Amino acid sequence: MKYNTLGHTGLLVSELCLGTMTFATSEGMWKPIAGVEQKLADELLRHSLDAGINFIDTADVYSNGESEKVLAQAIANLGIARKDIVIATKAYGRTGPGRNDVGASRGHIMDAVEASLKRLETDYIDLYQIHAADSITPIEETLRALDTLVAQGKVRYVGCSNWYAWQIMKANGISEARNLARLDTLQAYYSIAGRDLEREIVPLLEDQHTGLLVWSPLAGGLLSGKYSRENQKPEDSRRSAFDFPIVDKERSWRILDVLRPIAQVHETSVATVALAWILAKPFVTSVIIGAKRIDQLQQNLSAVDLKLAEDELRKLDEVSALPPEYPGWMIPFQNINRLADVPRV
Hints:
By secondary structure, this protein is α/β, with parallel strands linked by helices. The chain is built from 13 helices and 10 strands.
């Protein structure tokens, strides 16, 4: 297991992060996603720690808060010292029936953090993330609330999830101008079947030294190995009940056509190769993996030991390449000669 700094900070986190969206049991939209009861949650956490993972991600809306409770109990059951793990959670989603029980307003953030601290049975949250871009609350209000939490010691680092590039850049500008806590991370969807992030967000993250935490690296199970052109709705699969995140299915089948022979060469699974491809990207800080079974977790963990050859990476890059999109094709064209003006040192 390798460890990377969490964005532009000195905190080291494992290149794989245990996602706990599967923890606890629930109804509604969480029913096909969750289902991991306490005993299995303890085992999944123990196996993750044994493999070198020190980073765990959850959210206040996962199974309506029950995921945070199960995680807290697992930490207690295993006797894990609080200082030895990095806990990330999130706020934004609806947590009650009230008009202000949702969003990134100061009011909701202050209420949400107290509730998460109680459920997680901890005095502080290592990484507190705003789970979505709020179309109502001004970004400065959100940042001032997060800054307050950092000053109070309830939160140590802050981040966001599912934001546009321009929103992150605007937030960074406000933080610098107002001397507020800066967003250290972005948690975002990224997979070999969904590389949209590379257009605008990845260049921003590299320029601003913001950490990237990847969610759904297997495209909601589409890259698990269960799916194919011939079997697009396998039994007992989460995506068959909850078709998310959105992907171009035809493009995904072409990608799987290249993934499978590479997996066979390495005597491993399609999922492991898909994860190894992401881990090879230098802009990725940590990849969030979830599981409902120990063998699923072990399969995902094995990705850290798989080193793909340059030719294999090239083939995977080519088959999954994004189609050209303006101004992405114009800027390199106009800079061909410009780069020649830069002296080589």
